[in-house]
Amino acid sequence: MKLHPALLLGLLLAATPLAAQTDRLEFNGVIIANGVTEVALLDLTTGSTSWIGIGHTFAGYTVLAFHPGKVDASSGFSTPDTLELVGIGTNRHFTLQLETADLGVDSGASTPNEPIAEPWLDPFTGE
Prior knowledge:
Blueprint: H1 5-14, E1 25-33, E2 36-43, E3 49-53, E4 57-58, E5 61-67, E6 82-87, E7 93-97
Antiparallel strand pairs: 1-2, 2-3, 4-5, 5-6, 6-7
């Protein structure tokens, strides 16, 4: 069976993961106050960030819902906060996970009980 090149391209595009369609957005924060949820979205192509409410639109996507992550108290395992979005004019649904900050903590860092220097030495004479 021969496939027309245009049909083959269409099938390949349809099989592309949905996450690839939202590569230009990043979910950076959430604030819930007085029963109102707002989320911070970053448009990676323009560098602009905006805080928007559920049902509002940013960079061609409408935020449909926010789902807070959950923590299992016994195991400590947690699931990330997620957003449901829909592309304007495409009716395609996407999910974004909250990006977590890299705090730059080195796992090999000294413990608080390790001395940094010998405090009994005079800094001028070394005695």
